[in-house]
Amino acid sequence: MSRDRFERALFRVLRPITIAVLFLITAFPFFYMVMLSVRDIQELILDPGSLLPERWTLATYRDVLTRQGFLTFMANSAIVAVASVVVTLLISIPGAYAVARLDFFGRRQVHFLFLAVYLFPAIVLAIPLFVLFTMIGLRGSLPGLILVYIAQTVPVTVYMLRNYFETVPASVEEAAAIDGCGRVETIWRVVLPLSKPSLMATGLYAFMIAWNEFLFALLFLVERRDRWTVSLGLSQLAGSIEIPTTVLMAGSVVLTLPIVVLFFASERLLTEGLTAGAEKG
Question: Which of 180, 238, 233, 275 is nearest to 74 (CA)?
């Protein structure tokens, strides 16, 4: 057997094994979390080592969504996340297009200044923002938190979209200009339809940040429980000795499930968007 045939046969065997092992490593924690969330607390105490529950119950989810207030927390998180995504894209699209297509003084420097924002840890910005938002009356409000998330996501979304916009052939935009389209109309009618995968990847990235973020939510909303996000609600469950483990796991599922559903619903476009702009040719 030649070396090439041996390697092909070896990889043919190792590939499914590697995929199965990686799948188990990544999926098992979520599976175990779901199994704990539907177990009765008495059964868990009597048999903590059992993986599958003998008796299934959804009482933990009723407790989390009603008694613990997660319906309100999820509504707040949805408002913050959706608003952050919409405003971030509205700002990032023209900004990324300008960096990708327009010639202006300092274009290269502006591109790297966007990424330089991520050289500073979030805790460095927390205290100045806390003082500023207290002075202008935005502390304890969802619009204030949305502004913080927009400031966090715009730099990297501009970078992501700029790389994709550069792969859109300039000849397509020139043809649109010949047909009488202005710059804004070209972006709307030509560039954006061709950029759906990248827009999906960028929007999901911004959504995940706004949905999962904890530090700034704690800093600005801790005094207003009616405006808490899901991450704050889950931290309350984790920090209480009176909350059963099953209820805590149910809260973790509620926090994680929307992201998982969004990911699998947009998996094809997301994969295309994350790899777009990696090569040019």
Answer: 233
Structure tokens belonging to residue 233? 């609600």
CB atoms within 10 A of CB 91: 15
Q: pLDDT (tens digit, 9 = 90+) per residue, 78-88?
A: 999 999 999 99
- The secondary structure of residue 229, as a DSSP letter, is -
The values of phi and psi at residue 4, to 5°, are -65, -45
Identify the band that residue 91 occupies on the pLDDT scale cut at 50, 70 and 90: very high
3-class DSSP state of 50: coil
Whether the per-residue pLDDT at 104 is higher than 70: the answer is yes
Long-range contacts of residues 63-72, Cβ cutoff 8 Å, at least 24 apart: 63/247, 63/250, 64/237, 64/247, 64/250, 64/251, 64/254, 65/254, 68/233, 68/236, 68/237, 68/243, 68/247, 68/251, 69/225, 69/228, 69/233, 70/230, 70/233, 70/251, 70/254, 72/226, 72/228
Q: Are 226 and 70 in contact (CB under 8 A)?
A: no
